[in-house]
Specification:
The complex is a heterodimer of chains A (about 800) and B (about 550). Chain A is built from 29 helices and two strands. With about 800 residues, chain A is mainly α. In chain A, helix 5 runs parallel beside helix 17, helix 5 packs antiparallel against helix 22 and helix 15 packs antiparallel against helix 16. In chain A, about 60% of the residues are buried. Chain B has a domain of about 190 residues. Helix content of chain B is about 70%, strand content about 5%. Chain B contains 22 helices and two strands. A two-stranded antiparallel ribbon of chain B has the order 1-2. The radius of gyration of chain B is 23 Å and the shape is globular. Classes of the chains: A mainly alpha (about 800), B mainly alpha (about 550). At the A-B interface, helix 3, strand 1, helix 8, helix 9 and helix 28 of A face helix 6, helix 12, helix 14, helix 15 and helix 17 of B.
């Protein structure tokens, strides 16, 4: 096996080993001060809290949508609130023993095994990436082929039914190495490593880890393993397997503080909402497997390219693409399944950084990129529309959030929408590019927010203040003086996400917007235009809400000077990951010229758009190619051959992007870039005017209760409320109650009815038997008895009487026979 | 000792054990328990030996020569009676359909016996009945003569009735009688079909006195019927007529056992009242007899009926209803054990869906699902039993926070629950996926397959909700604080093997799938070849 694959396997298995080590060797005990009040306000990111009863209601701006909403949750919540005595509900800890300083020391040392493992994985991943990217690959094969791949047959079974398309079905597991996977390997192991480091300090307090310090590391390891599995899988089945496993790790980590109600609702919600998307994905898998007999991506693409279309029909192919993409809708929190990700912030903040910002949620984008060659034009339009809708909905919600992590959460959803949008408009490389840059700056932002929250938490702890929320930006302000490194790194990441030159986000976002623009130029449909306009609007909104966050958190005067007093910069082990990620948010890792993303090595050499394998009639821009003036592809490609049969849509869009880039100010900036700079600049300016400058009203505005549009946005367009009314309450709960009633009363009623009518019948029969049948018998018996009674009188036993009878008899006989 | 003898031994050893126990004095409780345990351990060993010499390439199904470990001797032979030549064979054998079931039975019986340690009321009677039940189940899975099958089938009823009725919960008598009557009603239908088949069969064509047969394999061959006979597949015109009704009678008989909607309501009652070990056996093995019977008997003897699109679609619809309805009913339950009981209805719905697929992937999924449901649901019932033994309550709302109180227990719970909701990497996922893929391939039932996928979400919903209410958060009934110690050694010993199987097959499902592949294909090919209107069937399958 190729060295890259061997090492990939090693990288895959090592975190699993870490998981096992932490799980088996880690102790679980309860620290003395780890007490949890289940009534606590769910939005907190810290271990011990005892809210006063009115803290919840006093907070007017706490949105309704922040409460646990799914109906199933609501029901249990009622059970919870039924108990009024707080002490009654405290965690029972006796059986688990006391968490001693020795335990703490042991747990802490043990955790470094996992961190070291991630360090090794990172080093190996860098090597694999270097080896892979420097490999030119086999030019004779279609470009969706990885540089190298290997499969092993996991199951091989025959299906001899005459209807089988194939008589031998194999389930293969296999791994691949291509540039995209190699880059993701680095991204995942890097961020996982940094999060491991960061957590060693962030989660260290017993009040934070609740005696489950090693469990936390175990789950991080399990997650990293599952995520790497998705990255290096070369077939859809294996992607699906690891897909569900990241769901499990996400469930475990969101619910890490499972004593509290909010994480319990959030993790269940995340899992179930994701499963809805997975149904679609699995249906797509079923279509491909039953029709093509394989799930190995290259084989699937080869077969499609050779004209084996599912059910011989193009709509089915479109459906397969869209259904597979449904998995991405769930995992990457795209509209309409975008509701779970903000709630997932109930997990510890390093988890949010790793799973719910940088890697797992990007898995949906990665999946879409993996299946990209089989997306038809319609499927791609669908993808673009979903991405655009998600981007703008989430961005609008982020505009008004007051919770630091919530801003970042909605921002994540919005940026994921960007990536999906990019893939939908055919800006494949730009989408993947944005995935990578976003992973860096968003992880930086989340860890930065963790750094802030950690200090806020400590300060509140110091003040014995359990009412104020350490995540609420209305309790912050002016922190840049106290936490300069955190501030600077977060500022760099914010500049990156806002798309400012010299930072990574500028390069990737600009390419996406150029792609959307090109898409709209080539096929000026309503959706294409909407996607293009939304792309630019969201760019402005992003800059606005991100700088609003920076201004509210770090600028201005401290809004709570008592809290402010006790805040310090965090220790090095927490700050170092921020610095690394901030450096990676600069332009330099991705290209030499910060103003020319297309010329950077990421776009020009690392990730190439794979060719489309769908039939020419349903390819993107099918039927439009002739209208495009800049048709780059040769017209005379013969039909039939593998590579030749491809419609040249990739060239079309790349050419159009190139064309757009040549407009504007020559050598400095292109038209799309100028426009994006303009909107981003306006966003920042607006944020500055409202929140940043000295005495800005905005510093106070967010204290007000949300009204009108603000309330609409704050409450997430009431999407959660609507879903709650429809799906869990309206559909599931109602149906479940109805059916349970039906089952107990109708079906079992019939059964019991049959039973009791049988009993009734038996009684009637018994009555008949007793009074009629037996009556007759008894009548006969009675008659006989009566006769017997009568006759008995005759038989007296006295000989004299008998003599009289004999004489009488003789007399009778005498007269009778005379 | 050859393998045929071993097969007889594995079937009748429990009966010997029962006799042994009956001979023991009533108060030598530990000896009685050890006898029960020893018998099941030996059974497991025998089943492993049989598995090791089992050849998965041999198909079985309708071909007597490719059955394995066969014993065929005359049990009853009355020539030229008023009813013709009566001939009943003692005919045992194993193929790929029954081999996994034998392993499952041996395993579940052992676990159930181990979990019966907490029984203190009339231990002698309990273990005697448990062993009798064991023989009944094992015998049903290995018998190839319909009469013998029926005898074993009925043999299970009696001990089950008493085990629920005497050792059960407060409403045990109601539950026991409901179980008994329901199953007996099914048996009556079955008996009707058996008699009909018997009189229609003739293994000596042309002879003056027809020789009827109960031999299942003979009944699968259309040539073994009196032409134009009551249930002869060769009846004129290709119409199904009475054969349809006979199929239906058998199907209903088995469907009650599965249990298929709407015949399922005996199950929750029986489970709630039955002691833990009996629930484990009931859900772990007994339900599988229904779907096993459908494959072994219904489909194989009436391939022409089974392959009609209307029947396929009906089975799929009932599968769909079972999956969704069972899941929703499970969600509504307040009693932990009743929830698990309804989840069995849902999980057996997957088996029905797989059976409706009529192709090898779907059938493999169905049989594998039978096996996996056996192990997973056994775990679930054992886990419920663990807390019930401690606090004698199963009301979900009274629990909470068990994760912290019983961490070891919680660890197993997580594996069992996630296996039940079909997490990849655990065995249940493979079987569900195979069922779906197989069923999806059958065009007739495709729409029902897609609708059934809702079960994947609902399954996660009721399992995770239970997990949240009973295991996360904090304990609601404070008095129980000190009454909930973690798993004992015996409980670990019962649960760990099941965990290993669930995880092992989740990673490497090949052993079980391979075991059944030959037979599953033989069945599929047999069904297709014997469908009356083959061309229709083929169109349907594409």
């Amino acid at each position: 096996m190729d060295i890259r694959l061997t090492l990939s396997l090693v990288i895959l298995v090592l975190p699993l080993f870490g998981f096992a080590v932490q799980l088996i060797l880690g102790k679980m005990k309860t620290p003395a001060d780890y007490v949890v009040d289940p009534h606590e306000n769910p939005a907190h990111d810290h271990g011990h809290h005892a809210n006063t009863a009115d803290a919840h209601t006093a907070d007017h701006t706490q949105p309704a949508a922040d409460a646990p909403h799914d109906a199933i949750g609501t029901v249990t919540h009622d059970i919870h609130t039924a108990h009024s005595d707080h002490h009654y509900d405290f965690v029972v800890t006796k059986q688990r023993g006391e968490w001693t300083p020795a335990d703490q020391k042991r747990a802490y040392s043990l955790s470094w095994i996992s961190t070291a493992i991630m360090g090794i994985c990172l080093a190996l991943a860098l090597f694999v990436a270097y080896k892979t990217i420097s490999d030119p690959g086999d030019a004779t094969k279609p470009n969706y082929y990885p540089k190298v791949q290997a499969s092993t047959t996991w199951m091989d079974f025959k299906d001899l039914s005459t209807s089988s398309i194939k008589q031998s079905y194999t389930v293969t597991l296999g791994i691949l190495a291509d540039n995209m996977a190699a880059i993701m390997l680095v991204v995942v192991t890097l961020i996982s490593f940094l999060v491991h480091l960061f957590s060693s300090e962030y989660m260290r307090e017993p009040s934070m880890h609740g005696g489950r310090f090693n469990r936390f590391y175990a789950f991080l390891g399990l997650f990293t393993f599952s995520m790497l599995g998705i990255v290096i899988a070369n077939n859809l089945l294996m992607i699906y397997i690891f897909w569900e496993l990241v769901g499990l790790s996400s469930y475990l980590l969101i619910g890490f503080w499972y004593e509290r109600p909010a994480p319990q609702y959030a993790n269940k919600k995340a899992f179930i909402v994701n499963r809805v998307g997975d149904i679609g994905m699995f249906t797509g898998i079923m279509i491909l497997y039953t029709q093509l007999g394989t799930l190995e991506l290259t084989k699937v693409f080869d077969m499609l390219a050779a004209g084996h279309i599912p059910f011989g029909s193009n709509p089915w192919l479109t459906a397969a693409g869209i259904l597979l993409f449904c998995g991405a809708i769930g995992k990457s929190a795209q509209f309409p399944l975008n509701v779970w990700l903000p709630d997932a912030m109930e997990g510890p903040t390093p988890v949010s950084a790793l799973i719910h910002a940088a890697t797992m949620v990007a898995a949906g984008v990665y999946l879409t990129a993996r299946i990209f060659p089989l997306l038809t034009g319609d499927a791609m339009l669908f993808v673009a529309a979903i991405g655009a809708a998600t981007a703008i909905i989430a961005a609008s919600i982020a505009l008004v959030q007051t919770d630091l992590k919530k801003v970042l959460a909605f921002s994540t959803v919005s940026q994921l929408g960007y990536m999906v949008l990019a893939l939908g408009v055919g800006a494949f490389s730009a989408g993947i590019f944005h995935l990578v840059t976003h992973a860096m700056f968003k992880a930086c932002l989340f860890l930065g927010s963790g750094s802030v929250i950690h200090q806020m938490h400590h300060s509140l702890h110091h003040l014995h203040d359990h009412d104020r929320d350490p995540q609420d930006m209305r309790n912050m302000g002016g922190l840049r003086k106290k936490m300069p490194v955190t501030y600077l790194t977060m500022l760099i990441a914010t500049l990156a996400i806002s798309g400012i030159p010299l930072f990574s986000g500028y390069m990737s976002k600009d390419e996406i917007l150029a792609g959307a623009w090109a898409f709209r130029n080539i096929s000026p449909t309503f959706i294409a235009n909407a996607v293009w306009i939304i792309g630019y609007t969201v760019a402005g909104m992003t800059a606005f809400y991100m700088f609003r966050m920076i201004f509210l958190t770090f600028w201005g005067e401290p809004k709570a000077s008592d809290i402010y007093e006790h805040i310090h910069e965090n220790p090095r082990v927490m700050v170092a990951p921020l610095i690394v990620l901030a450096i990676l948010s600069l332009w330099i890792p991705f290209g030499a010229n910060p103003l020319n993303p297309g010329g950077g090595w990421f776009l020009s050499t690392w990730v190439k758009t794979p060719i489309n394998v769908t039939p020419a009639a349903v390819q993107p821009f099918a039927g439009m190619a002739h209208e495009v003036p800049h048709e780059a592809a040769p017209e005379a490609k013969p039909e039939g051959g593998k590579a030749e049969a491809m419609a040249p849509f990739q060239e079309t869009i790349e050419h159009e992007v190139h064309h757009l880039h040549s407009t504007g100010i020559p050598g400095v900036a292109s038209l799309p870039a100028l426009l994006s700079l303009l909107v981003a600049g306006s966003g920042i300016l607006l944020a500055f005017l409202l929140f940043g400058r000295a005495g800005a009203k905005g510093q106070q505005v967010s204290w007000e209760a949300p009204r009108g549009i603000r309330a609409f946005l704050f409450n997430r367009w009431y999407q959660d409320n609507l879903y709650e009314k429809i799906f869990p309450v309206g559909l599931t709960l109602l149906l479940m109650k109805m059916l349970a009633w039906f089952d107990q009363n109708v079906i079992d009623g019939i059964v019991n009815g049959v039973g009791s009518s049988t009993v009734l019948l038996a009684r009637v029969t018994a009555g008949f038997d007793t009074y009629v049948v037996d009556g007759l018998v008894n009548l006969l018996g009675g008659t006989a008895q009566f006769l017997g009674l009568v006759m008995r009188q005759i038989q007296t036993g006295r000989i004299q009487t008998y003599v009289v009878y004999v004489i009488l008899g003789v007399v009778v006989l005498f007269f009778a026979f005379r | 000792m050859n393998n045929s003898t071993l097969l007889i031994l594995i079937t009748f050893l429990p009966l010997l054990g029962m006799l042994g126990i009956l001979a023991l004095p009533k108060n030598s409780v530990s000896v009685i328990r050890m006898v029960g345990l020893a018998v099941t351990v030996i059974q497991l060993v025998i089943s492993a030996v049989l598995w090791s010499s089992f050849n998965p390439a041999l198909g079985g199904i309708n071909d007597p020569n490719s059955f394995q470990f066969v014993t065929k001797t005359v049990w009853l032979d009355l020539p030229a009676t008023m009813l013709g030549n009566i001939h009943i064979d003692f005919f045992l054998g194993v193929d790929g359909l029954s081999m996994p079931m034998i392993l499952l039975t041996a395993l579940v019986m052992l676990v159930a016996t181990a979990s019966s340690w907490s029984i203190s009321k009339n231990v002698k009677g309990y273990f005697a009945l448990l062993l009798l039940l064991n023989t009944g189940v094992m015998g049903t899975f290995v018998s190839l003569d319909f009469f013998l099958f029926y005898v074993f089938w009925e043999l299970m009823l009696l001990p089950m009735y008493f085990l629920i009725g005497i050792w059960g919960g407060p409403r045990r008598e109601y539950a026991a009688i409901k179980f008994f009557l329901y199953t007996l009603a099914g048996s009556v239908f079955m008996l009707l079909a058996i008699i009909g088949l018997y009189y229609s069969s003739n293994v000596t064509p042309g002879a003056v006195t027809p020789t009827h047969t109960f031999d299942m394999l003979a009944l699968m061959n259309p040539l073994n019927y009196t032409p134009g006979g009551l249930l002869s597949p060769l009846a004129a015109g290709g119409g199904l007529g009475l054969r349809f009704w006979a199929f239906l009678a058998l199907f209903v008989g088995f469907a009650i056992k599965v249990p298929m909607f709407p015949f399922h309501t005996w199950l929750p009652d029986a489970h709630v009242e039955a002691p833990t070990a009996i629930s484990v056996i009931l859900a772990g093995v007994l339900l599988k007899l229904g779907t096993y019977g459908m494959m072994r008997i219904c489909f194989s003897i009436f391939p022409d009926v089974a392959m009609t699109p209307a029947i396929m679609e009906s089975i799929a619809i009932f599968g769909f209803i079972g999956i969704v309805y069972g899941a929703l009913c499970a969600m509504a339950q307040k009693d932990m054990k009743k929830l698990i009981a309804y989840s069995s209805v849902s999980h057996m719905g997957y088996v029905l869906l797989g059976l409706a697929s009529m192709n090898a992937i779907g059938f493999s999924g169905a049989v594998f699902q039978m096996f996996n449901h056996g192990t997973i649901t056994a775990m679930l019932f054992l886990l419920v039993g663990v807390v019930y033994d401690r606090v004698h309550d199963r009301t979900i709302a009274k629990f909470g926070g068990l994760a912290n109180i019983m961490p070891g227990y919680f660890f197993i719970v997580m594996i069992a629950f996630f296996a039940a909701l079909g997490l990849p990497g655990l065995s249940g996922w493979w079987s569900e996926s195979f069922v779906f893929i197989g069923a999806f391939r059958n065009g007739t039932i495709r729409i029902w397959t897609i609708l059934s996928l809702a079960g994947v979400v609902l399954g996660a919903a009721y399992m995770l909700w239970l997990l949240q209410r009973a295991f996360l958060g904090t304990l609601k009934t404070r008095e129980w604080e000190n009454h909930l110690p973690d798993l004992t050694k015996r409980e670990w010993a019962m649960l760990v093997p099941l965990v290993l199987i669930v995880v092992g097959l989740g990673v490497w499902p090949h052993p079980v799938l391979n075991m059944m592949n030959g037979s599953v294909n033989a069945l599929v090919v047999f069904l297709q070849n014997h469908a009356v209107n083959t061309s229709t069937a083929l169109n349907v399958l594409h």
